TrEMBL record:
InterPro entries: NAD(P)-bd_dom_sf, Sc_DH/Rdtase_CS, SDR_fam. The keyword Oxidoreductase applies. PROSITE patterns: ADH_SHORT. Gene3D superfamilies: NAD(P)-binding Rossmann-like Domain. It comes from Cryobacterium algoritolerans. This is SDR family NAD(P)-dependent oxidoreductase. The keyword Protein biosynthesis does not apply. Belongs to the short-chain dehydrogenases/reductases (SDR) family. Keywords: Oxidoreductase. One of its GO terms (molecular function) is oxidoreductase activity, acting on the CH-OH group of donors, NAD or NADP as acceptor.
Amino acid sequence: MTRTVSGALVLITGAAMGMGRLYAERAVAEGAKAVILWDRDPAALFVTTAILNERANGRSQIAPYVVDIADLGAIAQAAQRVRMEVGNPDIVINNAGIVRGSYFWEHDNGDDTRPTMQINALAPMYITREFLPAMIAGSGRESRIVSIASAAGMLSSPGMSVYAASKAALIGWSDSLRLELARQGHGHVRVTTVCPSYITTGIFAGARGSLLTPQMTPEQVVDRVWRAMLAGRPMLLMPWTVGLSKALRGLLPLPVWDLLAGRVFGVYRSRDSVVGRR
């Protein structure tokens, strides 16, 4: 178990705001050797870089890169620059993601379906593939890969079909990668898959927490993810009712689960009033 990220190179996607910025602040506070920020918003990245540099006070290198990970070709180019200018990351946090909440037939393939799958599912694979070989080669050196998925990837919800598909793909890939690394004797590279319910980031503004599943603050989630990452925990479900719902969904007949999720827990109604971040 690694106790802190002190001396490590940490790469975070979607790092200019929200939870990505909180992860970056945590890395700086613990004395990371370098904090590598990937984001597609140059203005927000500039502001975050300035704030982090002030907090680091020379103790951590802050390395910002304007990268739109929806452009899968840009990932390889940015990764090459990172390796040349900073070094290969010891920790990769696949935090960036987008939400498209509509009924499936209302989605536009080009504006909704394709970018959702590219950013939420394919980009973490492409990014990790760029840096994983050096992590594996660094025998004995602790490395971490963290992917922020969603409870939606485990529990179906009306109006979230494409988003749920992207997160289900991310979960399947991330946890399979964990098993592959362990099987091949690369235990120094740990993979953590994170599946939270609604977080008050603004992306799901208007969402209603279902029964026993209140919305969580970004600070709460980041703290738990950070501790799980350091411990090399394989999977983190938040809050505990996500795990309960997953178990019930596997045990109960589907009509019974639909009734329970829809009328009792309110899972199927939780996004009826979602307006999202404007």
